[in-house]
TrEMBL record:
<dbReference type="InterPro" id="IPR003961">
    <property type="entry name" value="FN3_dom"/>
</dbReference>
<dbReference type="Pfam" id="PF00149">
    <property type="entry name" value="Metallophos"/>
</dbReference>
<feature type="domain" description="Fibronectin type-III">
    <location>
        <begin position="60"/>
        <end position="155"/>
    </location>
</feature>
<comment type="similarity">
    <text>Belongs to the metallophosphoesterase superfamily. Purple acid phosphatase family.</text>
</comment>
<dbReference type="InterPro" id="IPR039331">
    <property type="entry name" value="PAPs-like"/>
</dbReference>
<keyword id="KW-0408">Iron</keyword>
<dbReference type="InterPro" id="IPR008963">
    <property type="entry name" value="Purple_acid_Pase-like_N"/>
</dbReference>
<keyword id="KW-0862">Zinc</keyword>
<dbReference type="InterPro" id="IPR041792">
    <property type="entry name" value="MPP_PAP"/>
</dbReference>
<dbReference type="GO" id="GO:0003993">
    <property type="term" value="F:acid phosphatase activity"/>
</dbReference>
<keyword id="KW-0378">Hydrolase</keyword>
<dbReference type="InterPro" id="IPR029052">
    <property type="entry name" value="Metallo-depent_PP-like"/>
</dbReference>
<dbReference type="GO" id="GO:0046872">
    <property type="term" value="F:metal ion binding"/>
</dbReference>
<dbReference type="Pfam" id="PF14008">
    <property type="entry name" value="Metallophos_C"/>
</dbReference>
<dbReference type="InterPro" id="IPR015914">
    <property type="entry name" value="PAPs_N"/>
</dbReference>
<dbReference type="InterPro" id="IPR025733">
    <property type="entry name" value="PAPs_C"/>
</dbReference>
<keyword id="KW-0479">Metal-binding</keyword>
Length: 472
């Protein structure tokens, strides 16, 4: 059975069709997909692949990517690398249909990693943009200059429709390329990508060959130069190898991927928040200290009360390591962080938590496990309409391959699980309704292997109204 998506349905129609298609799942709880796939290991694309091509021209800017540059979506950070010399620090930009050219200045960084020396890494924050406007921008000089474009989000507001893509654990294999292609050609048209950590997997190469950070930057440019990728740090960003003198964690990542952490009062690029359209997005770090009194804990403690669901109804958390995963690999790695932060997720009615790390797909029921107090024995997840939906989307396609071994029987908190590569799409419709679809790489671009209408946890918490459409 193939579940095609439909646009702008009436609620009654959605409810009726959803119920018919998914009645078995709703009644019986979790389901493990029987989909049969090629389970051979993924191989990195060779260095002479066209996706890694160096742009022509002397010192031409490469690895161009953008991310949100402020709290509300009126700024963009443009980043790029020049290989031979610093070149121009300027970004020239203009609104579509405008006669006025503007210029903003970048900072330039370099770093060394073992026997590798980076190119010149430029980061430029373009500020005071208009909402909901297409801008063109250019970087580089003369014949080596390159032009791209992006569209700013609508002004932040409670009923602003907006579509986020979800990719995690991407790497740079043939499967990674398939994932990005499927995301690009998905008819739902993602406007911003939420990336849940583990970017290049350069650390899989001898001495963490940082040249693979460069190839990854060139690979993702075709999408990340045109729409913001919202970054989350994963374990493959740590690059901590004191044996070869590399004892500064996250060194390549923090030089290459800047985020607007100061705008949300954060003191670290590993945890921060942004508002975008009708969503409030909190990014957390699974690999930074998160215990009581740590900087991340103290920031998050102040962060949740700031969320105004009348302004941004959809509260989304991104972090690399999942709280709930029923795969054998990485089982319970997120448990201590879950103990620290899950009570807040329930108290503040987080709508959905996206994670990666586990190289497969899984969607949870709305459950919580916050009653345990050492002596009461209450340590089993229970259904909880105030709890987030947990979605593991670490299936981007990196060289480590899929994880296929699952805990049996499938725990009741697990609604659907499947070890296939793919990506997700979260389509916010208004303050009460959103639609999530998971797309596997073997299918056509419009096909959803798993999908669900979400009810906002703040504005509509009736669990009975939240039904999966279909899983195939
Ligand atoms: Fe990971």
């Amino acid at each position: 059975m193939v579940a095609m998506r439909w646009d702008c349905p009436s609620f009654a129609l959605v409810f009726a069709v959803s119920f018919i298609l998914s009645i078995a799942e709703v009644c019986n709880g979790g389901r493990t997909s029987s989909f049969v796939r090629n389970d051979q290991l993924s191989h990195d694309m060779p260095l002479d692949s066209d996706v890694f091509r160096v742009p022509p021209g002397y010192n031409a800017p490469q690895q161009v990517h953008i991310t949100q540059g402020d709290r509300m979506g009126k700024a963009v950070i443009v980043s790029w690398v020049t290989p031979d010399e610093p070149g121009s620090n300027s970004v020239r930009y203009w609104a579509e249909n405008s006669k006025f050219n503007n210029t903003a200045q970048a900072i330039v960084l370099t770093y060394n990693y073992f026997n590798y020396t980076s190119g010149y890494i430029h980061h430029c924050t373009i500020k005071d943009l208009e909402f909901d406007t297409k801008y063109y921008y250019e970087v580089g000089i003369g014949k080596s200059s390159r032009r791209f474009w992006f569209v700013t989000p609508p002004a932040v507001g409670p009923d602003v429709p907006y579509t986020f893509g979800l990719i995690g654990d991407l790497g740079q294999t043939h499967d990674s390329n398939s994932t990005v292609t499927h995301y690009e050609l998905n008819p739902s048209k993602g406007q911003t990508l939420l990336f849940v950590g583990d970017l290049s997997y350069a650390d899989a190469y001898p001495f963490h060959d940082n040249m693979r950070w460069d190839t990854w930057g060139r690979f993702i440019e075709r999408n990340a130069a045109y729409q913001p990728w919202i970054w989350t740090a994963g374990n493959h960003e740590i690059d901590f190898v004191p044996e070869i003198g590399e004892d500064i964690p996250f060194k390549p990542y923090v030089h290459r991927y800047h985020v607007p952490f100061k705008a949300s009062g954060s003191t670290s690029p590993f945890w921060y928040s942004i508002k975008r359209a009708s969503a409030y997005i909190i990014v957390l770090s699974s690999y930074s200290a998160y215990g009581k009194y740590t900087p991340q804990f103290k920031w998050l403690e102040k962060e949740f009360p700031k969320v105004n669901r009348t302004e941004t109804p959809w509260l989304i958390v991104l972090m690399h390591c999942p709280f709930y995963s029923s795969y054998v690999h990485h089982y319970m790695e997120g448990e201590s962080m879950r103990v620290m932060y899950e009570p807040w997720f329930v108290e503040y009615k987080v709508d959905v938590v996206f994670s990666g790390h586990v190289h497969a797909y899984e969607r949870s029921e709305r459950i919580s496990n916050i009653a345990y107090n050492v002596v009461n024995g209450l340590c089993t997840p229970i259904k909880d309409p105030s709890a987030p939906l947990y979605i593991t989307i670490g299936d981007g396609g990196n060289l480590e391959g899929l994880v296929t071994e699952m805990t049996e029987p499938q725990p009741s908190y697990s609604a659907y699980r499947e070890a296939s590569f793919g990506h997700g799409m979260l389509e916010i419709k208004n303050r009460t309704d959103a639609y999530f679809g998971w797309h596997r790489n073997q299918d056509g671009y419009a096909v959803e292997a798993d999908s669900l209408w979400l009810k906002n946890r703040y504005w509509s918490v009736s669990e009975s109204e939240e039904l999966s459409v279909a899983s195939i």
